[in-house]
Every structure is written in C-alpha cells, then in structure tokens.
Automatic annotation (TrEMBL), chain A:
GO cellular component, one term: plasma membrane
Keyword flag Disulfide bond: yes
Organism: Cognaticolwellia beringensis
Alphabetical list of Pfam families matching this protein: Redoxin
Record-annotated Thioredoxin domain positions: 34-176
Any one GO molecular-function label of the UniProt entry: disulfide oxidoreductase activity
Protein name (record): DsbE family thiol:disulfide interchange protein
Length: 183, 170
C-alpha cells in the first residue's frame, strides 16, 4: 500500500505528460462544425454572374455537392484555386461557390482572370447564408449529400493531400449510400 | 501693398501652424487609441439594449480568433457577428434566443462559459475534485503526524515507574 502511495506523484506526472504531449498535435483550427448532420438551411440569393437569377436550397440538392466559400480578399483561396480545377474532374461531385461578403466586380474579375471552377457561385454579399451555416472565414468547404444534409465542413484550403484524406472517403461513403437507396 | 503681403503671410503661417498642431494632436489620439477595442457606430434606442449588446459581445467568443470575444476582435467574422448581434437585438430577441442562435451555427465553442454536459463534467467538477483530494491528503498527513507525535510522548509502564521513583525520591 505504502509503495503505491509513493508512486502516485510519478503516475500523475506521466499522465500529465501524456495529456500535454497529445495537446501538442491537436489542431485548434479544426473545430467541429455545429452544422454537421443538419440540413442545408433555406435561402434565396442571386448568383454572382447574373443577379437576376435567384437560387435556393433546392438548386444545390440532388447530387453530392461541394460548397466552396471563397472571396477575393481571401489569400488562401488563390492557393486553393488550381486544386479546385483538379477536383471538378471527379464527375461524382458538383462544385458550387459561395462568394462570401465580397465586392461583386472584384469577384467577377477574379473568375475571368483565373478559370471559373464552379457550376455557379452564390453571391452572398451580406454573408447571410454564410452565417447560417457557420462560416467564419474563407476558404471553407462544405460537403452536402444528395438529401441536402451537411456532412462535412472543412476550414482551410484544399490541396491534393487534403482532398484524398478528408474528402474522397466521405464521397465514397455517400455514393455507397446513394447506391443502397436506389436498390 | 507691403502690409497686405505681410497680412497674408501671417494668415498662411497661422494656417500652417493650425495644420501642424492639428495633425500632431490627431496622431497622438490615433496612437493612443490603437490599443482600444474596435468601435462600432451602432445606434441603440435605449440604454438597456446597449448594455445587453456590450455584455453579449463580451460573453460570445469570436469563432475565428479563438482567444478573443466578439467585442475585442477586429477580424472580419467578428465584425459581421457584431452586426448580426445588433440586428438580433433590434428584432427584440431575448438573450437566450441570441445565444441559441449563435450556438446553433458555431457550436458551444462560441460560449466562454461552457454548458454543463457529459463532455464538460471534468471541466466543471475537475477542480473541485482535485481540491477535495488535496484537502483529504493534507488531513491524512497531519493526522498521521500528530499520532506519531502523541506516541512519542507516551511512556511505557517501566518508564513511568522509573519516573515516579525519581520524583518520589525528591
């Protein structure tokens, strides 16, 4: 009994060490989104290219949808852009943009200057939809399944590594679900 | 003519001085205000709402900047959320409704005071348990020590008779 008591400080020290060591490798930016598992909220916003055309929730459902939050003020979006052009070659997904609290002309110029990877970009000038889905910066990418449920939120730029690790497994899962549902 | 020239010179000098002093004052105030919180120009109908705005913006954490509240942060999202908070207050939402609104979108992360849940039990009760354990430990050690000391003063029967003998001899 006494020998156990003598070792308590050592045990506590080791436990604390393990805890702090693990803490070193946690990513404080990777917060779980509160929106996972919830349906995409309803909205009615114009698209960037023609403000006459309003789109809503139903325009984004039916496929495996990637909703990419971008803006011209966002530096990492420039880094991410070529990878977006890569990932749209995967025919299973549809990529939509959410132009978040941006200047319309600047955004249009950006799409002209680089290539436009999006089916269309929603023009969210006031950040209304962004706020509804818990966006807190750009770039951010949401995965929305065929039933309109938000399945994933990824904060930060997508690149090859991120795509393979974070997105492809989920897309495979959703595709399996679609296949199951149709049979 | 000479007088007129002098006069305009004086006016110009005065103007220049005014500009210099003005910009000095301005830079002083600007420098001294760089450490202050961002200032919004929200108009409130009454003081209660304004107070509620201030309290709520201090209670809610900026989702992006991690260690600042909405009131202190100048990040884009904090500015947007302050605007949103203002709008919600104008719509007549209660404090709880506003907090629910934020939590629905950004999760418990936006709260500086985490709610009491299974995942946060250790956060809420951990310190109390550690304090309790510490007090128990101290009590345990002190008791043991006083027992040892008490034992030290106890005399055996032989010692007691020896002592009695010595005392009686006197």
């Amino acid at each position: 009994m006494k020998s156990i008591i003598r070792f308590i400080p050592l045990i506590l020290f080791v436990l604390l060490g393990v805890l702090l060591y693990r803490g070193l490798f946690l990513n404080p930016q990777a917060m779980p989104s509160a929106m996972i598992g919830k349906p995409l909220p309803n909205f009615e916003l114009p698209i960037l290219k023609s403000t006459d055309r309003l789109v809503g929730r139903e325009d984004l459902t039916g496929n495996i949808v990637l909703l990419n939050v971008w803006a011209t003020w966002c530096i990492q979006c420039k880094y991410e852009h070529p990878y977006l052009l890569d990932i749209i070659r995967d025919s299973r997904i549809k990529l939509y943009g959410l132009n978040f609290t941006d200047d319309r002309n600047a955004a249009l110029n950006w799409l002209k200057q680089y290539e436009d990877p999006y089916e269309f970009s929603i023009f969210d000038e006031q950040g209304a939809l962004g706020l509804d889905i818990g966006v807190f910066g750009a770039p951010e990418t949401f995965v929305i399944d065929h039933t309109g449920i938000i399945r994933k939120r990824f904060a930060g730029p997508i690149n090859d590594q991120v795509w393979k690790k974070e997105f492809l497994p989920l897309i495979d899962t959703i595709e399996a679900e679609i296949a199951q549902g149709s049979t | 003519m000479k007088y007129v020239l002098n006069h305009t010179c004086a006016i110009r000098l005065q103007q220049m001085l005014r500009v210099v002093i003005g910009s000095l004052l301005l830079s002083f105030f600007w420098l001294s205000s760089t450490n202050a919180s961002p200032v919004d120009t929200f108009q409130f109908n009454d003081e209660t709402t304004e107070l509620r705005f201030q309290i709520l913006s201090k209670e809610l954490r900026c989702p992006k900047c991690q260690n600042q509240n909405l009131a202190d942060s100048n990040s884009k999202i904090a500015i947007d959320l302050r605007k949103n908070l203002y709008n919600l207050l104008q719509e007549g939402k209660t404090d709880q409704e506003i907090i629910d609104f934020m939590v629905y979108r950004y999760g418990d992360f936006v709260l500086y005071r985490p709610p009491l849940k299974e995942q946060t039990y250790i956060l809420w009760f951990g310190p109390v348990i550690i304090l309790f354990g510490f007090i128990m430990g101290v009590v345990f050690v002190l008791r043991k020590r006083s027992k040892v000391k008490a034992n030290e003063h106890d005399l055996s029967a032989q010692e007691q008779t020896n002592l009695d003998d010595i005392l009686n001899k006197k």
